[in-house]
Amino acid sequence: MRNFMTKNSVFYFTYRGHLVEYLKRICIERNLTHCCLHLAVYLLDIFMDNHSIIPERVLLVTNVCLLIAAKFEENNVTIPKISELNAAINNRYPIKEYKNLEIVMLQFFHWYIMFPTAAHYIYYYMQSVISLDDIEDNKNIRTLFFNLHDCITDYLDQIIENVHYMQCYPPSKLAAAIIAASRMDMGLSGWTEELQNLTDYKMEDVQAPTFVLKTKHAFVHCQKCKIENIM
After folding, report:
1. Within this chain, do residues 133 and 223 fall inside the same structural domain, yes or no?
2. d(Cα 133, Cα 15) in Å, to the nearest integer?
3. Residue 209, SS3?
4. Is 217 exposed, middle or buried (0-12, 13-18, 19+ CB in 10 A)?
5. Radius of gyration (Cα) for the chain, nearest Å?
6. Which of 61, 206, 48, 226 is nearest to 121 (CA)?
7. CB contact set of 77 (below 8 Å; sequence gap of 6+)
8. Residue 217: what pLDDT?
9. Do 96 and 138 share a domain, yes or no?
10. Does residue 203 sit within a domain?
C-alpha cells in the first residue's frame, strides 16, 4: 500500500469519509458485494494518492472506481450502468468522461486490479468461523452464524472508514482480526485451531489489530504517514 499522506492527496482525506459513505450507499442500493465495495475504496485511495484531482472531478473518479470494481467482482446483471451511476449524482458529468477516465485508470493500474482486500479474505476464512467446540446444547448454530455475520459486516464497514487500518495491517491479518473480534463479541474464544490451520496466523499474531478493532478509538502509529492516528 502506498503512502496515503502525499501532497497530492492530503486534501482528499478531508472528505474521504463522505466518498466512502457514498460508495456504501450505492453498493447497498445496487446489492453489490462487500468485495466490490472494498476494492472500489482501495482503487480510489491509490488513484487519488497519485493524482492531483480537482474537487469538482472527485465524484467522477469515485464512480469510475466503483464501475471498475463491479466489472471485476459482480455478474453482468448487477454491474451498474454508467447512466445509473451518473444519475446518482444528478447527471453531473458527460457519459464520455466516464469512458475516458476508465481507460486512464486502467492504464495507471497497468490493467491489473486483482488486489485482495480484507473482504476477500473474510469470505475465505468464513468456512472456519465456527468450530465444533463452539456449538453447545443451548446454542442454535444458524443463529450463531448469522450473529457472527452481522458482527463481521460491521467490522468490514469500520475498516474502510479509516484508511490507516489498511496502512498498518496486511489484508489477510486484518481479516483474521475481524474474525477474532467478532467471535469475542459473541462470547466465543477469539481464535481456534481450525482458524490457525486455515489462516496460518496464531492468536498472538492478530492480537494487536483485534484490540484496535474492538477499542475503535485506540491510537495507532502509522509509520508510513509519520503521524499518530486515531482509529
Report:
1. yes
2. 45
3. helix
4. exposed
5. 19
6. 206
7. none
8. 56
9. no
10. yes
- Walking along the chain (231 residues) 10 residues at a time, the average pLDDT comes out as 45 83 96 96 92 90 98 92 96 96 97 94 93 73 90 94 87 96 93 94 94 73 50 42
188 and 91 in one domain?
Answer: no
Distance of CA 175 to the CA centre of its chain: 10
Which pLDDT score is estimated for 166?
84
The pLDDT of residue 65 = 98
123 backbone dihedrals φ, ψ, rounded to 5°:
-60, -30
CB atoms within 10 A of CB 173: 19
The string over 99-128, giving b where at least 16 C-beta atoms fall within 10 Å of a residue's C-beta and e elsewhere, is eebbeebeeeeeeebebbbbbbbbeebeeb
- C-alpha span between 126 and 190 (Å, rounded): 14
Query: Which of 130, 38, 55, 40 has the alpha carbon at shortest distance from 92?
Result: 55
